[in-house]
Design brief:
Largest sheet: 14 strands, antiparallel, barrel
CATH class: Mainly Beta
Helix content: 10-25%
Number of strands: 17
Oligomer: single chain
Structural class: mainly beta
Shape: globular
Radius of gyration: 21 Å
Strand order of the largest sheet: 1-2-3-4-5-6-7-10-12-13-14-15-16-17
Distance between the termini: 32 Å
CATH superfamily: monomeric porin ompg
Order of helices and strands: HHHHEEEEEEEEEEEEEEEEE
CATH architecture: Beta Barrel
Number of helices: 4
């Protein structure tokens, strides 16, 4: 995504410039705008609507497994992370699961997420949260005569977060069809300015007896969010994905998959990926993941190539994915851990 595109952090910076310029915070504002600019240049799904967006936290990585698969796993996901990527697939979790992931993200920010899934009310209930912490910077006076460049002793902090609650259920005697929905409560904070909003997502999925899987979702439906003097629409996203039957190759179970995504104001993307998983009789596993994304937005800074690995011992699974941003020449490393009473994939 090109640098002309905005995100929540930059909106807040603009609002500060308009509403609080008399307090000598221009230097702090510029620093926050720089952070937001880097994030905006790297985020695929942040939408453009009259030059403003909100809810960029909804578009950032959560599951390391999905990230390693170029986010093309909506048809085959079946763990607690489906709460963020494919609401209907939450029904496949089938047991108590807890997942955590975190990474040092762009411009010294920290991006973290947590997800919980448990059987309830004849289906699966999911609860999760994701946090983008921009950190803090020292305020420097820039408009006070005789005090330019002098620290005021105050600091500014900012973060975006979302809390998500979802429910999914398998239908019919064969349980081949699944439906699900989530509701997200969003909150943005920069200095003493804050904004909140709500978004909904809906999804459906089908699994055939021959091993084919299909899934789709319409995500991030909700009203615009206003922070200070700036208002921005949420990043509405539609996705449809397919997973092919698993084939055994040299002891590895290999599953290809593909996904088509449409982002309002952000173009389209086609992603193809594959996961090769080895499992032992003792409950150990090793997975290699890779994918490629073809995007209509030439300004997107993310590398089209995705890669990740995972390993499991009994109910514990560790996942890792790498993401490269080409123009700014930065690499991020997302690590995650998942616990399941019964391993599900």
């Amino acid at each position: 995504m090109s640098a002309r595109r905005d995100c929540t952090g930059m909106k807040a910076s603009r609002a500060l410039r308009r509403d609080r310029s008399s307090r000598g915070t221009a230097v702090a504002q510029i620093a926050w705008a720089g952070i937001a600019l880097v994030l905006a240049s790297a985020s695929l799904n942040a939408q453009e609507f009259n030059g403003s967006r909100s809810g960029v936290i909804l578009t950032l990585p959560t599951s390391p497994r999905s990230l390693g698969l170029a986010d093309a796993s909506a048809a085959v996901s079946g763990d607690a992370w489906a709460l963020f990527t494919s609401p209907a697939q939450l029904a496949r979790a089938g047991t108590l699961q807890v997942a955590l992931a975190s990474e040092a993200y762009l411009a010294s920010t920290q991006l973290s997420a947590i997800a919980l899934a448990l059987p309830a009310f004849g289906g699966t209930l999911g609860v999760g949260a994701t946090l983008l912490d921009y950190g803090t910077i020292r305020e420097i006076a820039s408009s006070v005569p005789g005090a330019e460049g002098v620290e005021t002793g105050r600091t500014w902090a900012a973060q975006d977060n979302a809390v998500v609650v979802g429910y999914a259920r398998a239908l019919g005697s064969t349980r081949a069809v699944r439906v699900g929905a989530t509701v997200s409560a969003l909150h943005s904070q920069i200095a003493d300015l804050s904004a909140s909003g709500v978004a909904g997502s809906f999804g459906a999925a089908w699994s055939g007896g021959s091993g084919w899987h299909v899934g789709g979702a319409l995500q991030h439906i909700g009203p615009a969010i206003t922070l200070g003097a700036t208002s921005g629409e949420l990043p509405l996203l539609a996705r449809i994905a397919v997973g092919a039957p698993t084939r055994t190759v040299r002891g590895f179970d290999v599953r290809p998959m593909a996904e088509l995504r449409f982002v309002r104001g952000g173009g389209e993307a086609v992603a193809v990926a594959a996961e090769a998983t080895w499992r032992s009789e003792g409950g150990r596993s090793l997975a290699f993941r890779g994918g490629y994304t073809l995007r209509s937005d030439d300004g997107d800074d993310r590398s089209p190539v995705s890669f990740g690995i995972g390993t499991g011992i009994g109910p514990i699974e560790l996942d890792y994915a790498i993401e490269r941003f080409e123009t700014i020449d930065q690499v991020t490393h997302r690590l995650g851990v998942r616990y399941a009473r019964r391993a599900t994939r």
